[in-house]
Structures are given as structure tokens and as C-alpha cells.
Automatic annotation (TrEMBL):
InterPro entries: Cys-rich_flank_reg_C (IPR000483), Leu-rich_rpt (IPR001611), Leu-rich_rpt_typical-subtyp (IPR003591), TIR_dom (IPR000157). It is found in: Membrane. Signal peptide: none annotated. GO terms for cellular component: plasma membrane. GO terms for molecular function: signaling receptor activity. Belongs to the Toll-like receptor family. GO terms for biological process: inflammatory response; innate immune response; toll-like receptor signaling pathway. It is a single-pass type I membrane protein. It comes from the Eukaryota. The keyword DNA-binding does not apply. The keyword Mitochondrion does not apply. Residues 801-942 form the TIR domain. It comes from Solea senegalensis. This is Toll-like receptor 13.
Length: 959
């Protein structure tokens, strides 16, 4: 169909166009009236961290609705939620991880998760769910991990898991499932389930025919701590099972074990039968089934004869890992594990072992990992000397001394744990054979001296933990044998002095932790750190480092640490104010993070950071820095994180000149400023997180822009913004800042734009409507207005008329006027006429000439033809004449038609049609037979009424 044509072929009218305009207008109105979605990050209860919303321990009773729809993770754990409603997550369609554990959820409405199509992990542990209802998890098509442990679940609807075809991990432990039928209802709709935990339910029997009639793809199955008295499997339904826990619960009777499918556990490599009460003969049958696949066995807290079980289990040739915790062993003798010749890993932790026989491990020549932690050993067992261990754990015992022969021949050992003992001192020879040791943990002992234990040995040691001891000083070369050391932990000791060269040899050290000691500034000024040229992290917090002047030091303490990336200096132990030397950071050209938190600083020199151009994180919180110069930040334009809390700042205006265009994180809690201006925020274009908690905000229009920005921004998270409180004025103290009505503070730009848009559209519609339908009427009103102006000018003038009549005609009709009208009326009858071509005053505006002619003549004769009707000036002439007619109520207008014009052709000319309804007229075409009568009547019409009583109204309309 062609444009502008309707289906019936008619032309599209102006009315149709008008309706289209109305439709557009209605659309615009509907768009402006839609509610705006919540996109701001100034949330009332939660905070955003790496695109995760964290709402932990907020005492929430309902799920917040101001969480940004862009978050991918949501943690609502440890609240008071009791119900999950249908629309709670409707806007969070991008969630991949949802944590609802440790609430009071007893009801989840149907379809509550329907919009979470991208969700991968869901945690509902520790709630009050009693039943998994029909289609409960509808919509979770991509969920791979579901945790619903520690609820009160008794029943499972057949379709509860219908939509969860992608689920691979399910933990439904610690519930009230009574039989395996409930487990069957879980498994029937989960074709790809790999891991299933049904620990600690109320299962009393386990029959394969009740569980499934098909093979399952399970790889891990936990049935532990159930009161299963009858365990029967007649079909090979677990062909892929590699991890199996059938550990027992507290019960009196033994489990009946009836497994006829000899291959059902043929792939199990890890088996946990901890606490299981089962006949010894059935145990032997179980070990016989896993004889070719078992590698790891856990027999913790066993009630049966442990020695017999160990001997039977160790006949499995593939078993290499044995865990025997919580068995109340007091001693370990040679006969305990004499048959375990293939063991590579033995865990005897959490027993009561005091004695270990010298030949206790004589048969385990392949043992590589031995754990004896949390026992009652008083010394390192001599039994280990015959082993070639890679890892030894002796932590949490009562060992007080280490001898030179304790680790003899342990040349393959890589990890040694001796923490949480009572060791008071070391000997130089104690680690002499540990040439491959990489990790040594000696923390939480009572050591006061190292006695050169690290001076010549341990060439491969990478990590040394000595924190939590009572060390007070180091001698020169104390660590010189640790040429491979990367991490050294010395925090929470009593270190006071360092001899020059005490860290000599630590050229590969990356991390040194010295916090919580008694180190003073004089010690670090000795240049004791100069040997650690590869150091990247140095922590000196909670020491006694204090400077009285900001003057430059003769030797900067860290000048040789050109690779240092993180430096933290003290929160003061001693009282008194401190300064920071202006060259304190000299040499640290690669420093990324610097903390001088709680150091009682009074000021920072403007040149403090000229040595650290790469700095990205700065913490100067908890100091008395009431004023910060913008010049301080000029050298560190790469700064991304800034902590300035508790610094007594009265204003943040310095940020506007600091030009920190890359700053992303700003924490400025508990200061003295009361207003956050627009200039401050706009000077930080990269800001994604800001924390202004605990400031004394002013509740007036000065903060109006900040309040609006904090609520509306979808780029920057304003942490805890809805809990900001007002301190000024006094009458509003304690009120929430975001409760302030800011409408009175500024003009609503959006509303103005809406009104302006609406008015523009309405005006456009009105103009279009008038143009299409009232154009002629408008033109008429325009001329009427002009007529009124000239009428006011002339109507009160009592001047005698200059002419008998003004002849209004079109130029094309001038021959008729000159040849017919003038000879008859002016030549024969003696009337005096005004004609524009001969009587208008030259140089005078045309409209004034017309007005003077009309009002200077007794009457106006309009010679009408089709050309006359189309003439602009003729239209103005008849308008002025008709206005004079209407206002003077005199017979001053004579209409003469030169040609027959049908009424249909006169319809567009509103003024002519109106005149014809009230005024008679003469027709020249109809006077063809009686021209003399025509001129006679026209002459009589020209006579004044006081001279001739002839009334034109008695003439016929179409003479």
C-alpha cells in the first residue's frame, strides 16, 4: 500500500496525522511515568565487594530489595529470615552464588528461584525447612551445587528436584530423612549427580532396590552417622564410586552387611568406616571387595578390636594412607602396624599417645608422611630415625627440648611441624641433616634463643615460622644459612635489638613479619635490612618506632630495599606525638602499599611520597592529621586505595586539588567534616567504594547533592549510607541523613524536563491541529485583529468623508472597473470613488492606505471574482470593511460578484460566507439582460440613508 493511502484507496487526512501525533505523545508520557529501577549502591543493610553483595549478620527479617541487579553473588547468612517469597529475587537474574545458611527459613514459596537461571551454587544449611515441596527449585536449571544440611527435612516431593538437571553436588546431611525412599526421590531426577552427602539422618536401612533401578553416576557418597542396621546391595548401582563413608553412629547393635554385587565398590579408593560397628567377618568381606582399589582408609574412633582391623586392612596391597584418630591410643608398639608394609601416610593425631616404641615403625619402610599432632609426647620419638620421611607433624604435644640426633638421617624431609609445644631453646646442630627441608613451623613455643640453629644448615628452607615465642635479639649471621628462605615470621615476640648483619644471607627473602615486638627507631636506622635486597613485604606495626622531627635522616632505613612493595610501620606502644622524617621512604621506588596507621603523627611532609611514584594503597588513619596538603598526593597519582579515618579532618576539600583520578577505594570514617560537596566527588572519577561512617553530617541543603548522588549512583558504593546520622542542626540531631527532604533544596531537573517535553509536544500537537483544521479561521482572526486596530484609530473621527466609495478589486478585474463601473457611476451619476492605483498616497504603508481609503469613504464596493478571493490584499480590504460594517452597524459594504461562484467554492473563505448570510449582494452575470437596472440599484445603494430611504436588504439575493 502506498504511503498516504488507506486500504480503500482514500487519501490519509490531517485527522489521521493528528491521531498519530497523539499516539507518540502518549508513548512519551508512559515512558516518563515508569518507576525507575533501584540501581544505587548506597544500600541500607548490605555492602558490595568484588561484585558480591554481603549482608551477613544484619538481623534481617526480609530479603533487601535495594540490592543492585548486577551483583553475581549474594551472602545473606546469619540473619533472621523465616520465609523466601516469590518476588524476593526477581531482579537478581545474574546471580551465580547465593548463601542463605544459618537463618530461620521454614518456607520457600513456589517459584522463588524461578528467575535465577544463572545460579551455580545455593546454600540453605542451618535453617528450619521441614519439607522439600513440589517444584521447589523450579528455574535452577544450571545449579551445580546445593547444600541443605542441618534442616528438619522429613519428606521430599517427587518433583522437588525436577528442574535441576545440572546438579553435581548435593549435601542433605543432618536432616530427618527416615528411609532410603527419600534418597531415591532425590536421585531419580538428578542424572549427573557426582557427590551426595546424606550424613546424620534417620536412615535405619539401606537397600539398593529401594534406592534406584538403574546405575548411578555417583563418585562420592557419605552415609555416615546414620543408624543403619541393615545394609544390603544386590545390584551394581555404584560403578563409578571412588569415595565412600559408611562411618557408624552411636548404636548398640551391629550393622548387618549383605553385599552380593562383588563389583559394587570395586572402584572405591577412599573408604571411611570411622565408628562403624560391624561383625569382624563382615569387615573382612568389605576389605575383600575393595582389595584392588583402596588407597586411603579412615578408622577413627573405632569400637572393634583396632589391632585386628589394622592387620586385616593392611592386607589390602593398594592401601597407602591410614588414619587412626580418636582411638585413645596411649602407646604405639611394633605389632600395631607391623603388617602395613605399604603405608606411605599414617595419621595418629588426636589420640593420647605418650610412648612410641623404638621399632614401632620398623615395618613401614615406605612411610613418607607421619602425623603425631595433639598427643602427649615429651620428645621426638627415636622411632622416626629409621624412616625416610617427607613430612612430620609433631605439633601440639609437650616437647620441651630438641636434640642433635632427633632428626638424624632425615635428608628427604621437606615439611616439619613443631608448633604449639614447650620448646625453650634450639641447638646449633638440631637441624643439621634436614638439607631438603622447605617448611619449618616453630611458632607458639617458648624459645628465647636460636643459638645459631639457622647459621649453617637448612639450605632449601623456604618458610620459617617463629612467631609467638619469646625471642629478644638476633646476633650477626643468625640466619646466614637460610639462603633460600622466602618467608620469615617473627611477629609477637619480644625483639628489641638487632646486631648489624643479623639478616645477613637472606638475599631471597620476600616477606618479613616483625609486628608486635619492642623494636625502636634506633634499631631500624642501623641498616639491618640492607641485606634483604629482594624483600617485598615488611610489617613493623605495633612496635616502638617514633621520630621527634620531620627532618631528613642521614641514612634512610630502607634505602636498599628497591623491590619492597608493602611497608607497614607502628601503631605506637608508647605515648607521645610523632613525626615522620621527610626521607623515610627514600629508595622505595616500587612501593605499592604503605601503612602508618595509628602512629600518632601530627603531620606529613609534602615531600614524603616523592620517592614512591608507584604507590597504590595508603593508610594514614588514626593520626592527628587535621590538615592534609594537596601537594602531598601530587607524586602518587596512581593511588587507588586511601584510608584517612580518624584523622580529625575538618574537610575533604584537599581531594579536589589532589587530582587522584585513579582512586577507587576511599575510607574516611569518624572525622570532623559535615558536608560532602559535589566538587569532592567529581574530582574522584574512578571511585567505586566510599565509606563515610561516623561523621558529623549537617542536615541541610549543603548535603542535598551528596544525598541524591549516593542514592542514585550505580557506579560507586556508599557503604552504610542509609545509617548516616545528622549532628547539625541541633533539632535534627540523630536523624538519618538520607531521610532529609531535599526537594525543597533544588529544582527537580527531571520534572522540569518532563514538563518541558510535555508542553513542547502539546504545543506541537496544537499547532498541527490548527494548521490542518483551523488555518483559515486563524488567518481570519489575524486580519480581524488588524481591522480592530485600524477601527479604533478611525471610528471616533468625525471628519467628512472624502469619497463616496472605495472600490476594492483585483488587478485582473481592473478593465471591468475602468470600462464599465467608472463611466456609469462616476461619469454619468457623478459619484466620487477611491481607487488604489490612482488615489493611494505614494510612500505610505499599503495597509494604512487601505485603512484610510475605507474609513475616508462612505462605503466600500467589493468587486468579487475567483481571483479576488485568492488575493492577499483583497482579503485584507474586505476584512477591514466588514469589521467597520459590524461595529458601525451601518450599510457601508456593497458586494458585487463579477462571476457566478458556487457555495462549495466559497466554503474555504469563512469571512465571505459569513457576510453572505447577513448581507445582500449584486451579480453582474445576472444583469446581462437588464444592465440599466443593475447600475440603477448600485447607484441607489451608494446614496446616504438620510438622502435616500432605499434599503438594500429588500433586493433579491441573486439579482
Amino acid at each position: 500500500m502506498s504511503p498516504g493511502l488507506e486500504k480503500d484507496g482514500t487519501t490519509n487526512t490531517g485527522g489521521e496525522k493528528c491521531w498519530r501525533l497523539i499516539s507518540v505523545f502518549c508513548c512519551l508520557l508512559s515512558i516518563n511515568s515508569l518507576p525507575h529501577p533501584v540501581t544505587g549502591y548506597a544500600m541500607k543493610t548490605c555492602k558490595i565487594s568484588y561484585n558480591f553483595a554481603i549482608c551477613v549478620k544484619m538481623k534481617l527479617e526480609t530479603i533487601p530489595q535495594d540490592i543492585p541487579p548486577t551483583v553475581e553473588g549474594l551472602d545473606l547468612s546469619a540473619n533472621r529470615l523465616s520465609i523466601v517469597q516469590f518476588l524476593d529475587f526477581r531482579n537478581l537474574t545474574l546471580l551465580t552464588w547465593l548463601d542463605l545458611k544459618h537463618n530461620k527459613i521454614a518456607l520457600i514459596q513456589k517459584g522463588a528461584f524461578a528467575n535465577l537461571t544463572f545460579l551455580k551454587k545455593l546454600n540453605l544449611n542451618q535453617n528450619n525447612l521441614v519439607e522439600l515441596t513440589e517444584d521447589l527449585f523450579n528455574g535452577l536449571n544450571n545449579l551445580t551445587e546445593l547444600r541443605i544440611a542441618s534442616n528438619l527435612i522429613k519428606t521430599v516431593a517427587s518433583s522437588a528436584f525436577t528442574s535441576m538437571k545440572s546438579l553435581t553436588f548435593l549435601d542433605i546431611s543432618y536432616n530427618k530423612l527416615r528411609d532410603v525412599v527419600g534418597v531415591h526421590l532425590v536421585l531419580q531426577n538428578l542424572p549427573h549427580l557426582r557427590v551426595l552427602y546424606v550424613k546424620n539422618n534417620n536412615l535405619t536401612s539401606f537397600h539398593s532396590w529401594e534406592l534406584s533401578n538403574r546405575t548411578l553416576e555417583l563418585e562420592s557418597l557419605d552415609l555416615s552417622q546414620n543408624s543403619i542396621a541393615d545394609f544390603r546391595i544386590t545390584a551394581d548401582i555404584f560403578p563409578n564410586l571412588t569415595w565412600f563413608n559408611i562411618g557408624g553412629a552411636q548404636r548398640k547393635q551391629q550393622m548387618i552387611w549383605d553385599v552380593h554385587a562383588e563389583t559394587v565398590f570395586s572402584q572405591v579408593s577412599t573408604l571411611d568406616i570411622s565408628g562403624l560397628q560391624m561383625a569382624f567377618a563382615d569387615m573382612k568381606l568389605l576389605f575383600g571387595i575393595v582389595n584392588a582399589s583402596l588407597t586411603s582408609l579412615r578408622m577413627n574412633a573405632m569400637k572393634n578390636d583396632l589391632r585386628a582391623l589394622i592387620n586385616v586392612s593392611c592386607t589390602v596391597p593398594t592401601m597407602s594412607t591410614l588414619q587412626l584418630r580418636h582411638n585413645k591410643l596411649r602407646s604405639v608398639t611394633a605389632d600395631l602396624i607391623k603388617l602395613c608394609i605399604n603405608l606411605a601416610e599414617l595419621d595418629l593425631a588426636e589420640n593420647e599417645i605418650q610412648i612410641i616404641g623404638d621399632n614401632a615403625f620398623g615395618s613401614t619402610h615406605n612411610l613418607r608422611t607421619l602425623s603425631l599432632s595433639q598427643n602427649r609426647l615429651l620428645s621426638v620419638p627415636t622411632a622416626i630415625r629409621d624412616l625416610s620421611l617427607v613430612e612430620l607433624d609433631l605439633s601440639s604435644n609437650d616437647i620441651s627440648k630438641l636434640g642433635c640426633e632427633d632428626f638424624v638421617n632425615q635428608t628427604r624431609m621437606q615439611r616439619l611441624k613443631l608448633y604449639a609445644n614447650s620448646i625453650s631453646a634450639l641447638k646449633e646442630c638440631v637441624f643439621k641433616d634436614l638439607v631438603r627441608l622447605q617448611i619449618l613451623k616453630l611458632q607458639s613455643n617458648h624459645m628465647t634463643r636460636l643459638n645459631g640453629a639457622f647459621g649453617n644448615h637448612l639450605p632449601d628452607l623456604r618458610q620459617l615460622l617463629l612467631h609467638g615465642n619469646e625471642l629478644t635479639s638476633f646476633k650477626r649471621g643468625e640466619f646466614s644459612g637460610l639462603r633460600s628462605l622466602q618467608n620469615l615470621s617473627l611477629h609477637h615476640n619480644k625483639l628489641e635489638t638487632f646486631e648489624n648483619g643479623c639478616f645477613l644471607g637472606l638475599t631471597n627473602l620476600i616477606e618479613l613479619l616483625l609486628q608486635n615486638n619492642n623494636i625502636k627507631e634506633g634499631e631500624i636506622n642501623k641498616g639491618c635490612f640492607n641485606d634483604m635486597t629482594n624483600l617485598k613485604r615488611l610489617d613493623l606495626r605495633e612496635n616502638h618506632i617514633k621520630y621527634d622531627s620531620s627532618a631528613a635522616l642521614p641514612h634512610a632505613p630502607f634505602s636498599q630495599l628497591s623491590r619492597l612493595e608493602m611497608l607497614a610501620i607502628p601503631a605506637q606502644h608508647s605515648r607521645g606525638k610523632s613525626q615522620l622524617p621527610c626521607n623515610f621512604l627514600q629508595g622505595l621506588t616500587k612501593l605499592l602499599s604503605f601503612s602508618v596507621r595509628n602512629s600518632q603523627l601530627l603531620s606529613l611532609d609534602k615531600d614524603t611520597f616523592i620517592y614512591t611514584p608507584q604507590l597504590q594503597e595508603l593508610d594514614i588513619s588514626s593520626n592527628d592529621l587535621s590538615d592534609l596538603s594537596p601537594d602531598l598526593f601530587v607524586p602518587i597519582q596512581k593511588l587507588k586505595t586511601l584510608y584517612i579515618s580518624r584523622t580529625s579532618l575538618g574537610s575533604l576539600f584537599f581531594l579536589t586539588e589532589a587530582k587522584l583520578t585513579q582512586l577507587e577505594f576511599l575510607q574516611a570514617r569518624k572525622n570532623q567534616y559535615s558536608v560532602i560537596s559535589e566538587e569532592i566527588i567529581k574530582s574522584l572519577p574512578a571511585l567505586v567504594y566510599v565509606d563515610f561512617q561516623g561523621n558529623s553530617f549537617t542536615c541541610n541543603c549543603d548535603n542535598a547533592w551528596f544525598i541524591k548522588w549516593a542514592k542514585d549512583t550505580n557506579k560507586t558504593q556508599v557503604f552504610d549510607g542509609y545509617n548516616f546520622k545528622c549532628n547539625y542542626p541541633v533539632q535534627l540531631r540523630g536523624m538519618k541523613l538520607f531521610d532529609l527532604d531535599i526537594q525543597q533544596c533544588s529544582v527537580d531537573t527531571e520534572f522540569i524536563l518532563f514538563v518541558s517535553t510535555t508542553c513542547t509536544i502539546l504545543l506541537f500537537m496544537a499547532v498541527s491541529f490548527v494548521y490542518h483544521f483551523l488555518r483559515d479561521h486563524l488567518v481570519y482572526m489575524y486580519y480581524l485583529f488588524l481591522s480592530k486596530i485600524f477601527d479604533q484609530r478611525h471610528k471616533n473621527k468625525q471628519v467628512r468623508s472624502q469619497y463616496d466609495a472605495f472600490i476594492s478589486y483585483n488587478n485582473h478585474d481592473e478593465p471591468w472597473v475602468v470600462r464599465e463601473l467608472l463611466p456609469k457611476l462616476e461619469g454619468e451619476q457623478g459619484w466620487r470613488f477611491c481607487l488604489h492605483h490612482r488615489d493611494f498616497e505614494p510612500g505610505k504603508p499599503i495597509i494604512e492606505n487601505i485603512a484610510d481609503a475605507i474609513y475616508g469613504s462612505r462605503k466600500t464596493i467589493c468587486v468579487i471574482s475567483r481571483r479576488y478571493l485568492k488575493s492577499e490584499w483583497c482579503s485584507k480590504e474586505i476584512q477591514l470593511a466588514s469589521f467597520r460594517l459590524f461595529h458601525e452597524q451601518k450599510d457601508v459594504l456593497i458586494l458585487v460578484f463579477l462571476e457566478e461562484i458556487p457555495a462549495s467554492e466559497l466554503s474555504p473563505y469563512y469571512n465571505i460566507r459569513k457576510l453572505l448570510k447577513k448581507q445582500t449582494y449584486l451579480s453582474w452575470p445576472r444583469a446581462a439582460e437588464h444592465p440599466k437596472l443593475f447600475w440603477e440599484k448600485l447607484g441607489k445603494a451608494l446614496k446616504p440613508k438620510d438622502e435616500d430611504k432605499f434599503d438594500l436588504n429588500v433586493m433579491e439575493r441573486r439579482y
